[in-house]
Amino acid sequence: xxxxxxxxxxxxxxxxxxxxxxKLTVKSLNENDFIxxxxxxxxxxxxxxxxxxxxDIDPVLDPILNKEISTENGNKTVALGDKVIDWxxxxxxxxxxxxxxxxxxxxxxxKVTLVNYCxxxxxxxxxxxxxxxxxxxxxxxxxxxxIVDNMASNTNLLVAIENSLLRELSSAQxxxxxxxxxxxxxxxxxxxxxxxxxxxxEAQTAKEEINKARSLYKPVSRRGSTLYFAxxxxxxxxxxxxxxxxxxxxxxxxxxxxxxxxxxxxxxLQNLIDSCMQLVYDFTCTGLFxxxxxxxxxxxxxxxxxxxxCFDSSALSAFIxxxxxxxxxxxxxxxxxxxxxxxxxxxxxxxxQLNDLFLNVKNDFVKRVADFKTWYDLEAPEETDLPGxxxxxxxxxxxxxxxxxxxxxxxxxxxxxxxxxELGESFIQPPMIDYRRIYRQSSPxxxxxxxxxPGADPQLxxxxxxxxxxxxxxxxxxxxxxxxxxxxxxxxxxEAGRTRxxxxxxxxxxxxxxxxxxxxxxxxxxxxxxxxxxLWLTTEPTNQFPxxxxxxxxxxxxxxxxxLKLNMRSTLSKIDEDLLEESQHQSFRPLVYALTFLHAVIxxxxxxxxxxxxxxxxxxxxxxxxxxKLMALYLxxxxxxxxxxxxxxxxxxxxxxxxxxxxxxxxxxxxxxxxYLNEYFGD
Length: 683
Prior knowledge:
single chain, alpha/beta, five-stranded parallel sheet, globular
């Protein structure tokens, strides 16, 4: 019996479509009643599917997998558990697992036939091409599908005629030349076969013509395939990044709808590609931690270049790994290049072995050490052309290798410039968390999963969004903090929310991993929930989170952005005109900007470890929000009293000592914070 490795659910869909009319039974090994349903399927010869199989198969199925069938009085029987049941030869059994790289024991592999249903580039290209052509030229796709169906049916009919002829000839009695009925049948079969072959030939010609028209849209499908494999590969970095093909196709089709129209096919194709790139990038980056966003952009840029067939994979490997050998160097570093690290010189020698261009650059470096030293001393050397006669001939990836060797501290910024050059500026500026956009992309069938970072809690933002849209607590918005004994409470709330159209928030899912299997089962069986129903989940990153929930969820990472600019952009994106009208005082708006800058600086210092703060503090959005409200309160009072002097002392104390300072326990950290307040707040 087949065990399908099916992370994208292709095999499950095919099995359900193929055997759905034959009363297919679908169960999982975690369900308590699967034995009873399996007995009925075996007795009546019906198909049976086990989905979401793990790395172990229940031993109770061994008699079936080993086909330990015995015959008694002409009846075939098999032992299942403590029962002996009748065996029908029409019974068929399927196993499907969502694990992309399962590790099965030799015992399991000996009992089943492993079938790899993992998606390939070519297979996904064909699927996406069908989607694109169906979106752009629906009549062409319908004609193509009809021709394929007709060719398949005619081919089957031709095989049936040939089998019929063979059967007639084998059963003929006497001299077949005297059998007029047989000769007449042969003539009719010949005419039918000739006609069918003619139809197949015509259909093949028409199919080739349609394929030429469809091939014009292949650049879009190829780019879509590149986007999918770039996004799905992120699960290697963190299992929380798991993404299903269904989720990707939803974004891909949405991008086709949003692309700008144009009469020129060439411009239209570029619009489709740009729309797919931006929407899928935004969707993927919303569910990534900051430390992985640039890696994703870089990986995507490399795959896009590789798609064009002019990618230097050896240069990429050299840039990422450098020289990993333990062999001593065979050429001493130039005496005047003492400013260059030994590891950098070793990498330079390693690069020179890759091709002649790198060798020429190394020789040029030896001759012009002073010029390279001038370039080395620049504050942002990656923004300036490399010196030397051969450096201008280097590709963008090869330039990254030279920067790694000479100024490895600027490699991060150089990668940003590389991505911006190949893909555009928007691919190094990840989207800010916009809860309205998150709501628009959510659906009743798919939960929204917030992956938490230290100090982050999206409950307040979700609650505010719910109040704006009419989902107020506790009637239309209910939340449960999961923990020991809260499973049944959460299930009751979920059932009420599903039927009445409420919003449901389950917090800290990582504290009740065992219950998430029950949640997964409910979500799998939930067919027609209320159109207003939304399920929000929060969890810390964990390897034990159920794979199927991760695949069907819209993932959102709540984490401060990387860099002052993006940090301020994230904070300011949540401030609208109503918040700026909280106080009529003329200094309120400038102070909001100063507070935003202070908040970004405080957050940014955390990434420098002990150099930034002696103790790691969980500064978050609530500190900024309450500080802003306190400023509005005091400035409004000063404005109403007609007080021209600013209450700087009160503001510095409340913001620096009470709000942000309330988290600070180290005296030197408090001193740093007070210095910032004195610098940013004052006349």
